């Protein structure tokens, strides 16, 4: 019985993958996101008022948010279902259960859709860094799907999408001009920063560790390509985190200090605790100027008198 159970587990964790399923998932995913884009376009025209230049960005970001939500659910399922059978540094290359394979094909379909959307909307050159990112990701994901390797490794990389749920939602709230002081925005900001550290940071560490540990199992081309992508992400992520921290946390503190200084300036002006003397002097000066008074105290009559 134990031997049969072990054999069944091996078949589940290391099945013979059917390429037709992967291709089918990719095609269905591309069609699905074009439908999602159309639905968001229709809904946003009723709910959100944006400039023409921002409408495509809103739709593109909303579609990315939907992808991140679905990926987060898929990653959680894979973790909950296979957490007792995964050795992160040893099984990431050969492990290829169908749920992970389907999730990888789904994300590949999304990146293909987004790549096409950028081209169709004339944004591929304007957002060249996104285009380069998509090309690199599609090369790596496509290679893994084609050769049935590093499937679980790719799903490990997709845990960054858990952070993207809050990263994209934060930007959508900004685009609809939700006040920064609103509880929903503040909660999203907090979750964004926490998940950024745990899921983007942790993903980078685990991928680098797995890449170095299993380098003998990779082809030279794949190892170099993945290494270059990782270097790019290691440089990009700290910069992105600093911008988020400066925008959502440090800006609030700077604004508070400026407001406090302005308040202090109104309270204490030239030794006058109430500011009454200064205000009275300004009023007197404005009245004198209106009457045409000179510096020696003599005033001219109004031309209308």
From TrEMBL:
Residues 53-253 form the TLC domain. It is a multi-pass membrane protein. PROSITE patterns: TLC. The keyword Membrane applies. The chain crosses the membrane at residues 20-41, 62-82, 98-116, 189-214, 220-245. GO terms for cellular component: membrane. It is found in: Membrane. InterPro entries: TLC-dom (IPR006634), TLCD (IPR050846). Keywords: Membrane, Transmembrane, Transmembrane helix. This is TLC domain-containing protein. It comes from Batillaria attramentaria.
């Amino acid at each position: 019985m134990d031997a049969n159970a072990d054999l069944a587990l091996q078949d589940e964790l290391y099945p013979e993958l059917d390429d037709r399923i992967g291709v089918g998932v990719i095609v269905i995913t591309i069609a699905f996101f074009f439908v999602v884009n159309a639905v968001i376009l229709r809904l946003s025209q009723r709910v959100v008022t944006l400039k023409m230049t921002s409408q495509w960005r809103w739709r593109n970001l909303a579609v990315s948010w939907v992808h991140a939500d679905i990926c987060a659910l898929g990653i959680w399922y894979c973790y909950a279902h296979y957490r007792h059978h995964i050795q992160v540094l040893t099984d990431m290359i050969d492990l290829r259960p169908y749920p992970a394979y389907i999730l990888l094909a789904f994300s590949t379909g999304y990146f293909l859709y987004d790549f096409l959307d950028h081209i169709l909307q004339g944004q591929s050159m304007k957002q060249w860094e996104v285009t380069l990112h998509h090309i690199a990701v599609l090369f790596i994901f496509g290679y893994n799907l084609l050769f049935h390797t590093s499937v679980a490794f790719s799903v490990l990389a997709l845990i960054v999408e858990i952070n993207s749920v809050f990263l994209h939602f934060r930007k959508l709230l900004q685009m609809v001009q939700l006040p920064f002081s609103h509880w929903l925005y503040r909660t999203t900001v907090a979750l964004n920063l926490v998940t950024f550290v745990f899921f983007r940071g942790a993903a980078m560490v685990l991928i680098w560790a797995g890449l170095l540990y299993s380098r003998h199992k990779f082809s030279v081309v794949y190892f170099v390509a993945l290494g270059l992508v990782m270097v790019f992400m290691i440089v990009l992520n700290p910069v992105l985190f600093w911008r988020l921290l400066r925008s959502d946390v440090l800006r609030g503190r700077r604004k508070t200090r400026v407001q406090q200084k302005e308040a202090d300036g109104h309270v204490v002006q030239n030794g006058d605790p109430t500011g009454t003397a200064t205000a009275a002097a300004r009023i007197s000066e404005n009245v004198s100027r209106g009457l045409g008074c000179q510096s020696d105290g003599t005033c001219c009559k109004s031309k209308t008198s």
